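Input record, target 12 of the design panel.
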């Protein structure tokens, strides 16, 4: 009788790669850094999110910047390691590292919104797309001071960047999946933006 998952000797490396990428992505650096910095549980501050934008609400810009770097770095590392085993493994790592950040097992599957992590993933997986998306986010964040709006527009444009800059169907599909997940994770922000109630980026304590 054939195995329901096909030839296990072929599939197990992909399963192992998915698990490793998920575990890397699930490291909650925002939560760990704010606790180490003496700010307590970041989930009880501001929006309750574990990402860098909420870490910035502690007033510690250095800690927020480090959160961005580490969140991006874990996504990039997962993809860079997987890429050594081929493009299919890199695609799996990109998706599962992102899922790890969004739904970390350590925090009851309640994680961040994935902006920095997706940026790191894109830089490692398709660097021209990553640069274009990050430039889009930065420009819009500076112009509007809305981190969420900048992230949403950068996410929506990223599959178009992938299609025109890379022209590889698999890459475009992976980037599009990440974009959909980013948009879905920002559902509350979208509602607040439409109501004019979304918070703007602040560079210090309110």
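The sequence produced for target 12 reads:
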């Amino acid at each position: 009788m054939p195995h329901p998952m096909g030839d296990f000797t072929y599939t197990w490396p992909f399963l192992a790669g998915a698990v490793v990428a998920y575990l890397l992505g699930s490291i909650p650096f925002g939560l760990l850094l704010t606790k180490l910095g003496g700010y307590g549980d970041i989930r009880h501050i501001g929006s309750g999110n574990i990402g860098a934008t909420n870490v910035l609400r502690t007033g510690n810009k250095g800690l927020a910047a480090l959160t961005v770097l580490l969140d991006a770095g874990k996504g990039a590392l997962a993809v860079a390691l997987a890429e050594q085993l081929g493009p299919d493994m890199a695609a799996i790592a990109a998706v599962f590292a992102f899922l790890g950040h969004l739904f970390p097992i350590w925090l009851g599957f309640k994680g961040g919104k994935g902006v920095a992590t997706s940026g790191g993933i894109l830089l490692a997986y398709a660097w021209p797309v990553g640069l274009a998306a990050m430039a889009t986010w930065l420009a819009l964040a500076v112009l509007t001071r809305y981190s969420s709006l900048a992230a949403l527009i950068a996410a929506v444009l990223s599959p178009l960047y992938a299609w025109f800059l890379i022209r590889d169907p698999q890459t475009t599909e992976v980037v599009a999946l990440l974009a959909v997940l980013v948009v879905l994770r920002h559902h509350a922000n979208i509602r607040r933006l439409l109501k004019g109630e979304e918070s703007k980026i602040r560079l210090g304590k309110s």
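Confidence is low (pLDDT under 50) at residues 1-5.
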